[in-house]
Amino acid sequence: MLLIPCLLYALTAEAVTLPQSAAVPGGVAVVPLDVTGNPRPPTARYNGKRVMVVENHQQWFAIVGIALGADIGTHRLDITGADNKKLRVAFTVTNKQYETQHITIQDKRKVNPLAQDMKRIESETARINAAFARWSDTLADDLSFALPVNGEFSSPFGLRRFYNEQPRQPHSGLDIAATTGTPIHAPASGVVIDTGNFFFNGNTVLIDHGQGLVTMYCHMDSIGVKKGQTIKRGDAIGGVGATGRVTGAHLHWSVSLNNARVDPRLFLNGVEN
C-alpha cells in the first residue's frame, strides 16, 4: 500500500492549477487516469521513473516531463492503482522544431575546457544529475509558477546551440535578461537541495518542489539561501549575475520534471513576455 504524507492532500482538487499540456520533446503531457472512485492517488511510471500524479476536479492526472531527445510517436505510462490494479495508458508525442542559435564566447576555455577542468565538470554534473533525479512525495503549493525574475525572455527553451560555431547540447532552460543584482524569487514553495559555483553554470541554486519537480537557477551574482532550507513562493534566493559561461547578465532558469528538462513557460500560466 502506498502512503503519501497528508500535506499532499491539503491541495484541494480546485486549488491545483495544472501546467499547460504540450506533448512534444521538451514539453509536458497532462494525462488523465481512469482510476476514479478512490481518494488515494495511483502510482505512475514513465520509462521506469516515478511521475507526478495530482488531482484536479475529482480526476487524477499524470504530469509527465518529456525529454528533448524523446522519440515521436506513442509513449506509455505504467499505472498502479491504490487497489494494486495495474494498467497501461498511452499518449502521443508530436514533433516540434526548435530554432538554432550561434553564440560567441570570449573565454575559449568555457567552450573547450582544459583537461584539468574536466574532473571538476564531471563532479558538478553528477551533483546536478542527482538533484534532478530526486523524488519527494510532498508537492509544492501549486503548479502555476510565479516568474522568478522581472526581465526579458532573451533565449527561449530548446534552442539548438552552437558555441564558437561548435555544436553543443540544446538549451535546457529559459534565459531572462536583467541587470546584475536584480532579485530572484522562488516561483513556488520547496526545499533547497544544492547550491554552489559551477564551471559552466556559475553560482547556482537547485530547489525541490516535490514529486520529481526540480528547478535550477544559474549564473547568479549572489546566493541568498542554503542547502536544506525550506522556502516559500516569493522568497528571495539571490540575485542575477554573469558568472559561469555567459555573454552578459541574465538568469538561466531550468525546470526538470521526472528528470526531463522541460519548457519553463508551460508552468507560467497567464505570464506573457
Largest sheet descriptor: 10 strands, antiparallel
What structural class do you assign from the helix and strand content? Answer: mainly beta
Radius of gyration, taken over Cα atoms and rounded to an integer in Å: 19 Å
How many helix segments? 1
What are the secondary-structure elements, in order, as H or E?
EEEEEEEHEEEEEEEEEEEE
Query: How many structural domains in the coordinates?
Result: 2
Q: Write down the CATH topology of the largest domain.
A: Glucose Permease (Domain IIA)
Helix percent band: under 10%
Describe this structure in words.
There is one protein chain. The protein is mostly beta strands and 273 residues long. The protein folds into two domains: 6-93, Immunoglobulin-like, CATH 2.60.40; 100-267, Glucose Permease (Domain IIA), CATH 2.70.70.10. Helices cover 7% and strands 40% of the residues. It contains one helix and 19 strands. The chain has one helix spanning 115-132, and strands at residues 28-33, 43-46, 49-56, 59-65, 73-80, 86-93, 100-103, 152-155, 160-163, 166-167, 174-177, 183-185, 190-198, 202-210, 213-223, 230-231, 236-240, 250-257, 260-262. Strands 8, 11, 12, 13, 14, 15, 16, 17, 18 and 19 form a ten-stranded antiparallel sheet that branches. Strands 1-4-3-2-5-6 form a six-stranded antiparallel sheet, with no helix packed on it. Strands 7-9-10 form a three-stranded mixed sheet, with no helix packed on it. β18 (250-257) and β19 (260-262) form a beta hairpin. It is globular and about 60 Å long.
